[in-house]
Design goal:
Elements (H helix, E strand, L loop, with lengths): L3 H13 L3 H6 L1 E8 L8 E3 L1 H14 E3 L7 E8 L6 E12 L6 E12 L2 E12 L20 E8 L6 E6 L8 E2 L2 E3 L6 H13 L1 E17 L5 E17 L7 E7 L11 H16 L5
Protein backbone atom coordinates (compact mmCIF):
# COMPACT_ATOMS: atom_id res chain seq x y z
CA UNK A 1 0.00 0.00 0.00
CA UNK A 2 1.29 3.47 -0.90
CA UNK A 3 2.26 5.67 2.05
CA UNK A 4 -0.30 8.46 2.53
CA UNK A 5 2.31 11.22 2.60
CA UNK A 6 4.06 9.88 -0.49
CA UNK A 7 0.76 9.74 -2.36
CA UNK A 8 0.15 13.45 -1.70
CA UNK A 9 3.71 14.24 -2.84
CA UNK A 10 3.07 12.20 -5.98
CA UNK A 11 -0.08 14.23 -6.69
CA UNK A 12 1.77 17.54 -6.67
CA UNK A 13 4.68 16.09 -8.66
CA UNK A 14 2.22 14.98 -11.37
CA UNK A 15 0.58 18.42 -11.33
CA UNK A 16 3.97 20.06 -11.89
CA UNK A 17 4.67 17.64 -14.76
CA UNK A 18 1.29 18.61 -16.28
CA UNK A 19 0.44 14.88 -16.35
CA UNK A 20 -3.36 14.88 -16.18
CA UNK A 21 -3.59 11.09 -16.51
CA UNK A 22 -1.30 10.48 -13.54
CA UNK A 23 -3.18 13.09 -11.48
CA UNK A 24 -6.56 11.47 -12.12
CA UNK A 25 -5.23 8.01 -11.31
CA UNK A 26 -4.42 9.07 -7.72
CA UNK A 27 -8.10 9.74 -6.90
CA UNK A 28 -10.62 7.17 -5.72
CA UNK A 29 -13.55 6.56 -8.10
CA UNK A 30 -15.90 7.88 -5.40
CA UNK A 31 -13.82 10.88 -4.32
CA UNK A 32 -15.04 14.33 -3.30
CA UNK A 33 -12.83 17.34 -4.14
CA UNK A 34 -13.59 20.89 -2.95
CA UNK A 35 -12.13 24.34 -3.68
CA UNK A 36 -8.91 23.12 -5.34
CA UNK A 37 -8.55 25.57 -8.23
CA UNK A 38 -7.71 29.28 -8.11
CA UNK A 39 -10.64 30.41 -10.25
CA UNK A 40 -13.09 27.70 -9.27
CA UNK A 41 -14.74 27.12 -5.87
CA UNK A 42 -16.65 24.13 -7.19
CA UNK A 43 -17.12 20.69 -5.66
CA UNK A 44 -16.37 17.65 -7.85
CA UNK A 45 -17.73 14.19 -7.17
CA UNK A 46 -15.93 11.17 -8.59
CA UNK A 47 -12.62 10.48 -10.35
CA UNK A 48 -14.04 11.13 -13.81
CA UNK A 49 -15.24 14.62 -12.89
CA UNK A 50 -12.07 15.73 -11.10
CA UNK A 51 -9.88 14.14 -13.79
CA UNK A 52 -11.66 16.13 -16.47
CA UNK A 53 -11.32 19.31 -14.42
CA UNK A 54 -7.59 18.79 -13.90
CA UNK A 55 -7.17 18.06 -17.63
CA UNK A 56 -8.89 21.36 -18.48
CA UNK A 57 -6.72 23.20 -15.94
CA UNK A 58 -3.52 21.75 -17.40
CA UNK A 59 -4.64 22.41 -20.98
CA UNK A 60 -5.56 26.06 -20.40
CA UNK A 61 -3.06 27.25 -17.76
CA UNK A 62 0.67 26.87 -17.18
CA UNK A 63 2.83 27.21 -14.08
CA UNK A 64 4.09 30.66 -13.10
CA UNK A 65 6.43 29.72 -10.25
CA UNK A 66 10.21 29.33 -10.58
CA UNK A 67 11.08 26.77 -13.22
CA UNK A 68 7.53 26.75 -14.59
CA UNK A 69 6.11 24.90 -11.60
CA UNK A 70 2.44 25.22 -10.69
CA UNK A 71 2.79 24.30 -7.01
CA UNK A 72 5.65 24.62 -4.53
CA UNK A 73 4.96 22.39 -1.52
CA UNK A 74 6.52 23.51 1.75
CA UNK A 75 5.11 20.84 4.08
CA UNK A 76 3.40 17.47 3.91
CA UNK A 77 2.42 16.07 7.30
CA UNK A 78 0.16 13.50 8.89
CA UNK A 79 -2.62 14.86 11.08
CA UNK A 80 -3.30 13.66 14.61
CA UNK A 81 -7.05 13.63 13.95
CA UNK A 82 -6.61 10.10 12.65
CA UNK A 83 -4.66 7.83 10.34
CA UNK A 84 -5.29 8.68 6.72
CA UNK A 85 -5.59 12.46 7.13
CA UNK A 86 -2.79 14.45 5.49
CA UNK A 87 -2.05 18.19 5.47
CA UNK A 88 -0.15 19.84 2.62
CA UNK A 89 0.92 23.50 2.70
CA UNK A 90 1.88 25.17 -0.55
CA UNK A 91 2.29 28.20 -2.79
CA UNK A 92 0.69 28.11 -6.24
CA UNK A 93 0.96 30.27 -9.34
CA UNK A 94 -0.30 29.99 -12.90
CA UNK A 95 -1.11 32.00 -16.01
CA UNK A 96 -3.32 31.42 -19.08
CA UNK A 97 -1.41 29.58 -21.81
CA UNK A 98 -2.69 32.06 -24.42
CA UNK A 99 -1.51 35.05 -22.44
CA UNK A 100 -2.90 36.90 -19.47
CA UNK A 101 -2.13 37.91 -15.90
CA UNK A 102 -0.36 35.63 -13.47
CA UNK A 103 -2.32 34.51 -10.41
CA UNK A 104 -0.72 33.47 -7.11
CA UNK A 105 -2.05 32.08 -3.85
CA UNK A 106 -0.84 30.56 -0.60
CA UNK A 107 -2.82 27.92 1.20
CA UNK A 108 -3.20 24.37 2.39
CA UNK A 109 -5.11 21.20 1.55
CA UNK A 110 -6.56 18.45 3.73
CA UNK A 111 -6.63 14.94 2.28
CA UNK A 112 -8.32 11.77 3.36
CA UNK A 113 -6.39 8.80 1.94
CA UNK A 114 -7.84 5.31 1.89
CA UNK A 115 -6.70 2.15 0.10
CA UNK A 116 -3.97 4.03 -1.73
CA UNK A 117 -6.25 6.66 -3.28
CA UNK A 118 -7.49 10.16 -2.43
CA UNK A 119 -11.04 9.89 -1.08
CA UNK A 120 -11.44 13.54 -0.12
CA UNK A 121 -9.52 16.77 -0.76
CA UNK A 122 -10.41 20.24 0.43
CA UNK A 123 -8.28 23.35 0.01
CA UNK A 124 -8.17 26.76 1.67
CA UNK A 125 -6.25 29.50 -0.13
CA UNK A 126 -5.64 33.22 -0.17
CA UNK A 127 -4.69 35.12 -3.28
CA UNK A 128 -1.52 37.20 -3.12
CA UNK A 129 -0.03 39.73 -5.52
CA UNK A 130 3.23 37.79 -5.86
CA UNK A 131 5.06 34.81 -4.40
CA UNK A 132 5.69 35.78 -0.76
CA UNK A 133 9.32 36.08 0.37
CA UNK A 134 10.64 33.25 2.49
CA UNK A 135 10.35 33.94 6.19
CA UNK A 136 13.55 34.20 8.21
CA UNK A 137 14.46 30.78 9.61
CA UNK A 138 15.92 30.22 13.05
CA UNK A 139 19.43 28.84 12.97
CA UNK A 140 19.70 25.27 14.18
CA UNK A 141 22.26 24.53 16.90
CA UNK A 142 24.73 22.56 14.79
CA UNK A 143 27.65 22.90 17.19
CA UNK A 144 27.68 20.36 20.03
CA UNK A 145 24.11 19.26 19.34
CA UNK A 146 22.09 17.23 21.83
CA UNK A 147 20.82 15.03 18.97
CA UNK A 148 21.82 14.23 15.39
CA UNK A 149 20.78 16.89 12.86
CA UNK A 150 19.20 15.95 9.53
CA UNK A 151 20.99 17.36 6.50
CA UNK A 152 20.02 17.22 2.83
CA UNK A 153 22.25 17.38 -0.21
CA UNK A 154 21.92 17.47 -3.99
CA UNK A 155 23.84 15.73 -6.75
CA UNK A 156 22.80 18.06 -9.60
CA UNK A 157 23.69 16.49 -12.94
CA UNK A 158 23.34 18.15 -16.33
CA UNK A 159 22.89 16.26 -19.61
CA UNK A 160 26.66 15.63 -19.85
CA UNK A 161 26.77 14.23 -16.29
CA UNK A 162 28.63 17.30 -15.06
CA UNK A 163 27.95 17.91 -11.36
CA UNK A 164 27.43 21.19 -9.49
CA UNK A 165 29.96 21.79 -6.68
CA UNK A 166 30.08 24.57 -4.10
CA UNK A 167 32.91 25.91 -1.95
CA UNK A 168 31.74 26.16 1.66
CA UNK A 169 31.87 29.48 3.54
CA UNK A 170 31.22 28.02 7.04
CA UNK A 171 32.18 25.00 9.11
CA UNK A 172 32.13 22.12 8.78
CA UNK A 173 34.15 21.97 5.52
CA UNK A 174 34.77 25.75 5.41
CA UNK A 175 36.88 26.55 2.35
CA UNK A 176 36.38 23.09 0.86
CA UNK A 177 34.43 21.98 -2.18
CA UNK A 178 31.37 19.80 -1.65
CA UNK A 179 27.85 19.13 -2.88
CA UNK A 180 25.13 21.77 -2.32
CA UNK A 181 22.99 21.20 0.73
CA UNK A 182 22.23 22.13 4.31
CA UNK A 183 20.09 21.31 7.31
CA UNK A 184 16.40 20.52 7.25
CA UNK A 185 13.98 22.95 8.90
CA UNK A 186 11.33 21.85 11.37
CA UNK A 187 8.17 20.89 9.48
CA UNK A 188 9.93 20.92 6.08
CA UNK A 189 9.86 17.91 3.78
CA UNK A 190 13.15 16.43 2.60
CA UNK A 191 12.39 17.32 -1.02
CA UNK A 192 11.43 20.90 -0.14
CA UNK A 193 14.61 21.26 1.92
CA UNK A 194 16.78 20.08 -0.98
CA UNK A 195 15.11 22.46 -3.43
CA UNK A 196 15.42 25.38 -1.01
CA UNK A 197 19.08 24.80 -0.22
CA UNK A 198 19.97 24.41 -3.90
CA UNK A 199 18.21 27.65 -4.83
CA UNK A 200 19.82 29.54 -1.93
CA UNK A 201 23.35 28.28 -2.63
CA UNK A 202 23.47 27.98 -6.43
CA UNK A 203 20.59 30.00 -7.92
CA UNK A 204 19.23 26.87 -9.62
CA UNK A 205 15.70 25.50 -9.57
CA UNK A 206 15.88 21.70 -9.64
CA UNK A 207 13.65 18.70 -10.00
CA UNK A 208 14.35 16.56 -6.95
CA UNK A 209 14.63 12.91 -7.93
CA UNK A 210 15.34 9.72 -6.00
CA UNK A 211 17.58 9.31 -2.97
CA UNK A 212 21.19 8.77 -4.04
CA UNK A 213 22.67 7.94 -0.61
CA UNK A 214 22.06 8.15 3.14
CA UNK A 215 24.91 8.27 5.64
CA UNK A 216 26.08 9.96 8.82
CA UNK A 217 28.97 12.28 9.64
CA UNK A 218 30.28 12.64 13.21
CA UNK A 219 33.14 15.03 14.05
CA UNK A 220 34.67 15.23 17.54
CA UNK A 221 36.87 17.88 19.15
CA UNK A 222 40.22 17.41 20.94
CA UNK A 223 38.42 16.31 24.11
CA UNK A 224 36.42 13.69 22.23
CA UNK A 225 33.14 15.56 22.51
CA UNK A 226 30.80 15.40 19.52
CA UNK A 227 31.13 18.77 17.76
CA UNK A 228 28.99 17.91 14.71
CA UNK A 229 26.64 14.99 14.05
CA UNK A 230 24.70 14.98 10.80
CA UNK A 231 22.51 12.34 9.20
CA UNK A 232 22.72 13.23 5.51
CA UNK A 233 20.26 12.38 2.74
CA UNK A 234 21.54 13.12 -0.77
CA UNK A 235 19.19 13.29 -3.76
CA UNK A 236 19.76 12.99 -7.49
CA UNK A 237 18.57 16.30 -8.98
CA UNK A 238 18.11 17.75 -12.45
CA UNK A 239 18.43 21.49 -13.19
CA UNK A 240 15.15 22.99 -14.36
CA UNK A 241 15.72 26.75 -14.42
CA UNK A 242 17.85 29.53 -12.98
CA UNK A 243 21.44 30.68 -13.47
CA UNK A 244 24.35 29.04 -11.69
CA UNK A 245 25.88 31.55 -9.24
CA UNK A 246 27.30 31.52 -5.72
CA UNK A 247 24.63 32.30 -3.14
CA UNK A 248 24.34 32.09 0.63
CA UNK A 249 26.83 30.02 2.65
CA UNK A 250 29.14 29.45 -0.35
CA UNK A 251 31.95 31.45 -1.93
CA UNK A 252 32.20 29.74 -5.34
CA UNK A 253 30.26 27.36 -7.57
CA UNK A 254 31.49 25.10 -10.37
CA UNK A 255 30.12 22.67 -12.96
CA UNK A 256 32.56 19.78 -13.20
CA UNK A 257 32.78 16.61 -15.26
CA UNK A 258 33.26 13.30 -13.41
CA UNK A 259 36.78 12.93 -14.86
CA UNK A 260 37.82 16.40 -13.64
CA UNK A 261 37.06 16.15 -9.91
CA UNK A 262 40.64 15.75 -8.61
CA UNK A 263 41.54 19.48 -8.35
CA UNK A 264 38.50 20.07 -6.13
CA UNK A 265 39.80 17.76 -3.37
CA UNK A 266 36.40 16.35 -2.50
CA UNK A 267 36.05 13.89 0.34
CA UNK A 268 36.03 10.27 -0.73
CA UNK A 269 32.43 10.01 0.40
CA UNK A 270 31.37 12.96 -1.78
CA UNK A 271 33.04 11.33 -4.79
CA UNK A 272 31.31 8.04 -4.03
CA UNK A 273 27.93 9.78 -3.79
CA UNK A 274 28.49 11.53 -7.14
CA UNK A 275 29.50 8.36 -8.96
CA UNK A 276 26.62 6.47 -7.35
CA UNK A 277 24.17 9.13 -8.55
CA UNK A 278 25.56 8.88 -12.10
CA UNK A 279 25.05 5.10 -12.01
CA UNK A 280 21.56 5.57 -10.57
CA UNK A 281 20.56 7.87 -13.41
CA UNK A 282 21.94 5.43 -15.98
CA UNK A 283 19.99 2.58 -14.38
CA UNK A 284 16.83 4.68 -14.59
CA UNK A 285 17.40 5.09 -18.31
CA UNK A 286 17.82 8.87 -18.19
CA UNK A 287 20.04 10.76 -20.64
CA UNK A 288 23.64 11.38 -19.78
Amino acid sequence: MTDQLDLVRALYAAVNRSDAVAVADLYDPGCTVEHVFLDDDGVYEGREAIGARWAREIETREGALAGGQRVSVTRVAGMETGWGWVLAEWVTGSRPRRGGPETFAVGYSHFWIEDGRIRRQRSVMQRVAAVPPQAARPRSDRHYPSRPIVGVGAVILDEASRVVLVKRRHEPLAGQWSLPGGTLDLGETLEAGVAREVLEETGLVVDVGPVADVFDRILVDEQGRVHFHFVLVDYLCTPRAGTLAAGSDVTEVALVGPADLDPYRLTEKARDVIMGAIRLRAARGESS
